[in-house]
């Protein structure tokens, strides 16, 4: 099995969250989706598990943070600056909050941020291929 990441996020309204992430360009993996959870696929390696609060609590006893606090920011690489703008605009148009942090325009990198309807912070960004060091 290749290395993959499954980011787990607690959500208040699973159907609304599925619709939100679908609008951002994620695909639903129905094999890992039921009435308590949905697997939303960004790429072959990156998946987001949307979990109802009850489902979330079956994995941990730690409290679900308020939408006014932040523990992580999830950055997603986009093909170009226009894709960054499109994702951020789509988030705002479908229940998220755009530009919760200042826009980053560094020449070789461009990024914006948004919060999903549950307050989870995402940062779509683009980096010029020439700026990425060779392995």
Automatic annotation (TrEMBL):
Residues 3-127 form the VOC domain. It comes from the Bacteria. Keywords: Lyase. GO terms for molecular function: lyase activity. PANTHER family: BLR2408 PROTEIN, BLR2520 PROTEIN. This is Lactoylglutathione lyase. It comes from Arsukibacterium ikkense.
């Amino acid at each position: 099995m290749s290395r993959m990441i499954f980011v787990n996020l607690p959500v208040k309204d699973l159907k609304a969250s599925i619709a939100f992430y679908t609008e951002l360009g994620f695909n639903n993996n129905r094999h890992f989706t039921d009435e308590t959870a949905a697997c939303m696929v960004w790429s072959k390696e990156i998946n987001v598990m949307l979990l109802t609060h009850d489902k979330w609590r079956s994995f941990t006893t730690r409290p679900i943070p308020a939408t006014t606090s932040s523990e992580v920011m999830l950055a997603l690489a986009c093909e170009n600056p226009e894709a960054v703008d499109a994702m951020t605009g789509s988030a705002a148009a479908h229940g998220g909050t755009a530009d919760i942090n200042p826009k980053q325009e560094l020449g070789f990198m461009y990024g914006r941020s948004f919060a999903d309807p549950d307050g989870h912070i995402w940062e779509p960004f683009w980096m010029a291929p020439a700026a990425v060091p060779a392995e």
